[in-house]
Write a structure and sequence with these properties.
Oligomer: single chain
Largest sheet: 6 strands, mixed
Order of helices and strands: EEHEEHHEEHEEHHEHEHHH
Distance between the termini: 34 Å
Mean pLDDT: 96
């Protein structure tokens, strides 16, 4: 199995990098490897920085898998939604460093983080599912509703609106914008600061604050798994 996820630990900051081709497609293999790396991050009690390639976090799910049959597509979407659920309830802070574009599942990864650092520039961020003929899945709707502003939720989910980084920050996809060549360093510095939190208090507070969203997401994932539209 090729290495699709890279891991680096510096003190109490774990940098996890997606590395799956030109658009960092989210495939079953990548999700499997990412979950194994997240196990290591948890065991280290490290703050997580999740990032991608220069110019792109991810372009979304692997379309070869999505087009290979309903069972494969449902399996991939379920695994991806379960990954988002894990990140939303991760025991340490999750900092997402988006160095460029973030499309579909790439944008959902941003919605799964605690702090999102995005690159300034001519980049597109958003949920393009309905524009490419995909009915939005229940978990995607639930996650978008929980993290985006109400107006941005409507435009993103139903109209497949793609936005620039400044608009993405206003919508709720990102928290900070920095020059593209400073994204990773900024995220790592933020993660180092966040590593000084009391992790037990952080985790318990996160679970309390997101209890409703996590419960709704669990239900939505089950609906998607059963192919209920």
């Amino acid at each position: 199995m090729s290495e699709l996820v890279k891991y680096q630990l510096d003190g109490k900051v774990a940098t996890v990098t997606l590395d799956n081709g030109k658009v960092n497609a989210i495939s079953p293999e990548l999700i499997e490897q990412l979950n194994k790396v997240l196990d290591v991050v948890e065991s280290e009690g490290a703050t997580l920085v999740l990032t991608g390639s220069v110019g792109i976090l991810s372009g979304g799910y692997d379309l070869r898998v999505m087009g290979s049959g309903i069972d494969a597509a449902v399996g991939l979407v379920t695994a991806g939604s379960t990954l988002s659920r894990r990140l939303l309830s991760f025991p340490t802070p999750v900092v997402v460093a988006c160095g460029g574009h973030a499309i579909a599942k790439g944008a959902f990864l941003m919605l799964s983080g605690d702090l999102r650092i995005a690159a300034e520039g001519e980049f597109k961020i958003g949920l393009n599912e309905v524009a490419i003929g995909m009915t939005m899945h229940h978990a995607g709707i639930t996650l978008a509703r929980g993290r985006l502003t109400p107006a941005a939720f409507e435009r993103s989910v139903m109209l497949a609106e793609m936005v620039n980084p400044q608009q993405a920050m206003e919508a709720g996809f990102a928290d900070r914008l920095v020059p593209a060549d400073q994204v990773l360093a900024t995220a790592q510095k933020a993660a180092e600061t966040l590593s000084q939190l009391n992790m037990k208090a952080h985790h318990q507070t996160k679970l309390k604050a997101r209890a409703g969203l996590l419960a709704e997401l669990d239900h939505a994932i089950e609906l998607d798994r059963k192919h209920l539209i």
